[in-house]
Amino acid sequence: MAMTRTTKLALHTAILAGATLAITATASAEEPEPIAAQPLTERHAFPNETSMQITQNLEGLPPQSVEIEDASYMVVVEFTIQPGVVFPWHTHPGTVLIKVAEGDFTFVFAEDCVERDFAPGSALVDPGDTVHTAFNPSADQETVVVATLFGVPAEGPLTIPVEAAEGSALDEECGIERLSE
């Protein structure tokens, strides 16, 4: 059966409209958050008195020992970090155990400005109460880390940012370059 000119025109119009909708939908898709935080647990309390001690030796720093007399609450959060994105300088109210699940992860203590690189499958300790930043060094791959925070309060922030002026000074001192927003 032959198509009439009107049928062909209607078919072409429908195809063009469908393609336009597909392009518009793709173009308007939201960009991912630079750093997406997904809580994997709520804050959980240990049912009994719980304490912890963790020691780590990082090259260039004195041994870091953390003794948490009252671990009380813990929470687990997964962070997805887009390529090239840097966390603001901050600290935490408790100790953080960090597992690198995907991609590469670079961690920097303000104390020494050394970039410590961690590959997928590796882990590190943020003793808490230490100003630091971290970033995804990749130009094209997301980084996913899982952070388990111990000794956090029952309520309140899990991340405590430094003042903007201090953060800018630390960026300059440590040679941290941030993507322009």
Automatic annotation (TrEMBL):
* InterPro entries hit by this protein: Cupin_2 (IPR013096), RmlC-like_jellyroll (IPR014710), RmlC_Cupin_sf (IPR011051)
Give UniProt keywords alphabetically: Signal
Q: By its UniProt entry, which Gene3D superfamilies does this protein fall under?
A: Jelly Rolls
Q: Is Signal included in the keywords of this UniProt record?
A: yes
Q: Which residues form the Cupin type-2 domain?
A: 78-144
Signal peptide segment: 1-29
Q: Does the keyword ATP-binding apply?
A: no
User: What's one Pfam family the UniProt record gives for this protein?
Assistant: Cupin_2
UniProt-recorded name of the protein = Cupin domain-containing protein
Which organism encodes this protein?
A: Aquicoccus porphyridii
